[in-house]
């Protein structure tokens, strides 16, 4: 039933129609001066899935649906992860995500597939290395020729990739430096040992060779990629994994179970505090071991506990686990 309301006392819930430019969080008022309230602080999402439209061609409807759902419900968040090339949706629990997916299917007639998100591991090196790579191709007419001599060395965490040139003499035209840089950046984006972004190293293009006719931009890009890969693979490469800070609010009687579960996820407890009838556990846990953690936590504590999580930093991944990631990447490449 619908009934007109002449006025709305504080705390009332009502519906309005035909509001074209009004969104969640807006305040409607009839006043001479604008009325501004402190914005609502929404809780951080604690569960994540990768999502794709099941049918090719639905990408535009898919993007529109995600934007509209987030506009209505700010606790439903989405982003495109540039490292894993996945669209990641996040929410307050599996039921929340399921409900929003059902809304998208009903309202926008889109078939959707969800899966566990890929972990955005990163690749870097431990030692200095150098390489010499020659690219030569001759197939009638003008060929391709380029030779790149390169050194690489590790940098501090978070410093990114630095490309420099220290060429001397006339062995290589300085006009080919951007070509080598482009080749290196392409490899850094795609990865060498596990298909992950390369970070925190210095690259120095210090010498090489060229041909007056056959050397060109593409030849030096290819040589730059080859030289960088060779140097990287001999510089003791290793993987970095993302570590997240979690804060768990849990009743005292479930503390032992929750602490044991955190340890089983390779988590490290940073401290504990109390908040009324709840204990607060602060810990750091690898992202790879946080999949569906909110669901497990609620099951373990009969729905009495909750947690928040946020990115903290990257750190070196244990060797045996890194080898599994590298092995899976090589197997998928061979299969493809």
Q: Helical amount among residues, as a percent range?
A: 25-40%
Summarize the helix and strand pattern as letters: EHEEHEEEEEHEEHEHEEHEH
Shape: globular
Mean pLDDT: 93
List low-confidence stretches.
Answer: none
Radius of gyration: 27 Å
Question: How many beta-strand runs?
Answer: 14
Please give the largest β-sheet: 6 strands, mixed
How much of the sequence is in beta strands? 25-35%
Report the structural category: alpha+beta
Per DSSP, the total helix count is 7
Query: Distance N terminus to C terminus?
Result: 59 Å
Task: Characterise this structure.
By secondary structure, the protein is of the alpha+beta class. The chain is built from seven helices and 14 strands. It has helices spanning 59-72, 94-108, 177-190, 217-233, 255-264, 293-300, 319-335; strands at 47-53, 77-81, 86-91, 112-115, 122-125, 129-137, 144-154, 161-165, 197-198, 201-209, 237-251, 268-275, 278-286, 306-316. Strands 5, 9, 11, 12, 13 and 14 form a six-stranded mixed beta sheet that branches. A four-stranded antiparallel beta sheet has the order 2-3-1-4. Strands 6-7-10-8 form a four-stranded mixed beta sheet. A hairpin with a 6-residue loop joins strand 6 and strand 7. Helix 1 packs across helix 2 (94-108) and helix 3 (177-190) packs across helix 4. It is globular. 26% of the residues are buried.
């Amino acid at each position: 039933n619908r009934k007109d309301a002449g006025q709305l006392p504080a705390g009332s819930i009502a519906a309005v129609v035909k509001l074209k430019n009004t969104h969640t969080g807006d305040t409607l008022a009839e006043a001479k001066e604008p009325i501004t309230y402190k914005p609502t602080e929404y809780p951080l999402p604690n569960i994540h899935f990768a999502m794709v439209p099941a049918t090719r061609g639905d990408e535009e409807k898919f993007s529109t649906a995600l934007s509209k759902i987030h506009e209505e419900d700010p606790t439903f968040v989405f982003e495109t992860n540039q490292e894993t090339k996945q669209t990641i949706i996040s929410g307050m629990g599996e039921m929340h995500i399921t409900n929003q997916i059902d809304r998208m299917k009903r309202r926008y007639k889109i078939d959707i597939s969800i899966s566990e998100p890929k972990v955005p591991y990163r690749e870097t090196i431990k030692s200095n290395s150098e390489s010499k790579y020659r690219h030569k191709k001759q197939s009638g007419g003008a060929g391709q020729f380029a030779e790149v001599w390169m050194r690489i060395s590790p940098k501090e965490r978070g410093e990114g990739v630095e490309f420099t040139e220290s060429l001397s003499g006339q062995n290589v035209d300085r006009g080919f430096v951007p070509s080598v840089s482009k080749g290196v950046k392409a490899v850094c984006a795609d990865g060498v040992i596990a298909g992950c972004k390369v970070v925190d190293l210095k690259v120095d293009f210090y010498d090489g060779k060229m041909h007056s006719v056959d050397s060109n931009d593409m030849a030096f890009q290819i040589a730059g990629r080859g030289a960088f890969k060779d140097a990287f693979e001999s510089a003791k490469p290793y993987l970095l994994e993302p570590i997240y800070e979690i804060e768990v609010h849990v009743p005292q009687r479930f503390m032992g179970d929750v602490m044991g579960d955190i340890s089983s996820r390779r988590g490290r407890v940073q401290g504990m505090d109390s908040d009324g009838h709840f204990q607060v556990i602060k810990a750091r846990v690898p992202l790879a071991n946080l999949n569906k953690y909110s669901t497990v936590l609620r099951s373990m504590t009969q729905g009495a506990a909750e947690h928040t999580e946020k990115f903290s930093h990257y750190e070196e991944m244990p060797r045996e686990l890194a080898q599994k990631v590298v092995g899976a990447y090589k197997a998928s490449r061979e299969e493809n």
